[in-house]
Amino acid sequence: MRWALLPSFACLLMYGAFRISVLTIGTSFGRPPDAAVLAFGVAAVIAIGCLYTLVVLRIPARLIVVVQALLTFGPYAVIGESWGPISALLLASVLLGFTGRVSWLLAALVALAEFLVRVWWLPGGGFTYAAWAMLVTGAIGLGFFAMARLAHLVEELRATRAERASFEVARERLRIASELRTILGERLAVIIRGARARPAEIVEVAREALDRVRSVADDYRDRSLAAEVEAARAVLAAAGVPATVEAPELRLPERADAVLAALLRRTVIAGLRHGTPEHCLIEVDGTGRLKVTFTGLPGVPLREAATPVEVEVVELGGTVSLEARIPLGPRTPERIYTPRWLAWVVLLVLEIDHIGTVALKLFGARDLALAAPSMIQIIVVVVCLPLVAVLQLRHVLPREHLAWRGTLLLQIVLLFTSMALAGDIVPPSYAGLVAGVVLFHMRAPWSWAFAALLVCLPLPLSPGSNVHVTVLLSLVSMVMVYALCRLPVTAAQLEQARRELTRMSVVRERLRIARDVHDLLGFQLSAIVVKGELAVRLADADPDAARAHLADLVTVAEQALSSVRSITEEEAGLAFGEEVETARSMLSAAGIDARVRLDATPVGSLGAIVLREAVTNVVRHSGARVCEIETSLEAGVVWLRVSNDGALPETRGRAGSGLLNLAARTEEVGGSLAVRRDGDRFTLTAGLKASPHRSRS
């Protein structure tokens, strides 16, 4: 069920009941038809409503509109003055079924046709009644059109949320792929060429590439500049460095915000690594400018961000200042699309319709056989009702944007004062407009009770009117006003939700890529560093062994180039068995005895990623002589354990980003990861989903 269309259908049912009621009792210029003609008229009203429903449901509308036009104007020949005006639904169907200027031209012709029928064909009501019929047709038709159009917009927003998120994720993936190729592609190519010609340069280039990989992985963790400013303040305070932060409310484009956040993080860390500054000043403004100044800390090697950004580093005496600026282009305020103008314009037309109806009654007194207008009635039409209309248009805004209680009370007082002073020239259905505002601003269930009271209160002021007809017309106005106020707000909320879903999808993609950059490329570059260092040491003592390690190094570098592509295409997949052999080779190159016992194989690539990170930590952060890799199957869970006998004292209590990544990954698939240190022995244990087929070695 398309819930956004419910107000349109509810309004349609009440409007159809209203038209049937008018047809049954007749009008001032036409008597009720006999039973057979009445049955024909009721059937025509129902058919017109059904055809309009098809148009609202977006059934191809041109033939439907032709049939609807025949049913709208044809019954005049049979029923006469008591039929219509009911062409409001035809006008709405034309606006919904056609596009561009053609739709508005046809809609104007529908309203004009209603006027001409009353002037030339059925002139009993006179020119004033014909003008009133045209005005009502335009106002109610625009109301039905606006309700349906806004409902369509709400449905479109709901349907396109996932599509937009996928598009933004794909665009972010392409952008990151370009950055990774720029940062790592050239360095890996140098490593591959250097392995054949200048092996002594390999380690330096590989270390630089590894450092950039860590930096890129850190940059892709989505953290706002405002959050990074607070984190920098806390880190500096913990280091005992007085800090001054000048950062007003930050509203930067998302990409600029992320780049400056990463640059601030790295700048503060670089400053603290090279000493204890006397003072740190952080200045940020909304023009894309970030400036970090350290006092009492000369010679800090501050670096640029991974993404191109204008950075200037100035050293003057004991002061180092880094200033970064991202060109933002023309500054345009962020806008959430909502067609509030459409609701506002239609409500304006409805107000003009009601004021025009009262004015036609008052100044067309000769045609309608009414008494000459009094001064009080003229004041009501010229002053009071326009004030009611102005307040009504003001109340289109959400309650959060205005002090609505006082103005709503004033509107109600003005309306009922006008009804009491002007008599029956102000129709009781006028209260339906205010009841719709009450539904919009007040909270249920009080809003429904108060709206019902407003609809019923004017009835005693018009004792000669048909109660059920008046109530139906008031309910139509109430539902129409409520829908026109509520649907733009709903559209804005859905647009905001769509943006938030898109942002979160992009954040998840960044986190995934950050993990893969760290876990995959970090391992491969670490392996290149280890094998390159070993090849350099063996170059004189054992040239054959050195060449073998260089050959392995080239293979790993080519795998790294492939990883750059795979990381930004889809979830990078690894085979556990292949990773075990790679781990053996890397441990052997580092002079560590690898002891492997596999009694089960994990499903998917997560086990391979856990093994890769664990072995990388053993090679880089331990003095191990022996590394044990074992798997076992217990109660449907594959347990992977990687332990070594060379844990260094400084690793106590520390958890790097790699282990945090692994813990997050395993938790996402319902697994677990734990580390334990017992003297010099360090053990990483991961519980992973079991494979349906066990493998042994």
Cα separation of the termini: 58 Å
Beta-strand level of the residues, as a percent range?
A: 5-15%
Q: Which shape, going by the Cα principal axes?
A: elongated
Radius of gyration: 38 Å
Gist of the model:
The chain has 697 residues and is of the alpha+beta class. 64% of the residues lie in helices and 10% in strands.
Write the layout of secondary structure elements.
Elements: H1 6-25, H2 35-56, H3 62-73, H4 76-79, H5 88-97, H6 100-121, H7 126-197, H8 202-219, H9 225-238, E1 243-246, H10 254-273, E2 279-284, E3 289-295, E4 310-316, E5 319-325, H11 340-363, H12 365-368, H13 375-394, H14 404-422, H15 430-441, H16 446-456, H17 467-541, H18 543-567, H19 576-589, E6 593-598, H20 606-621, E7 626-634, E8 637-644, H21 657-668, E9 672-678, E10 681-689
Parallel strand pairs: 1-2, 6-7
Antiparallel strand pairs: 2-3, 3-5, 4-5, 7-8, 8-10, 9-10
Labels describing this entry:
5-stranded mixed β-sheet, 697 residues, alpha+beta, elongated, 21 helices, disordered C terminus, single chain
Give a written overview of the molecule.
By secondary structure, the protein is of the alpha+beta class. 64% of the residues lie in helices and 10% in strands. The protein has 21 helices and 10 strands. The chain has helices spanning 6-25, 35-56, 62-73, 76-79, 88-97, 100-121, 126-197, 202-219, 225-238, 254-273, 340-363, 365-368, 375-394, 404-422, 430-441, 446-456, 467-541, 543-567, 576-589, 606-621, 657-668; strands at residues 243-246, 279-284, 289-295, 310-316, 319-325, 593-598, 626-634, 637-644, 672-678, 681-689. The strands form 2 sheets. The protein has a 5-stranded mixed β-sheet with strand order 1-2-3-5-4, covered by helices on one side.
